[in-house]
Amino acid sequence: MKTVVAAVIERSDRRLLIGQRRKTDSSALKWEFPGGKVRDGESPEAALARELQEELGVTLVKSAELGRVRHQYAETPEELEIRFFAATIAESEVVPQAFEKIAWALPKELGDYDFLAANRELIAQLATGRIKPSQILESNRGKPRTTAPDQSSGSGQ
Question: pTM, whole model, 2 decimals?
Answer without folding.
Answer: 0.86
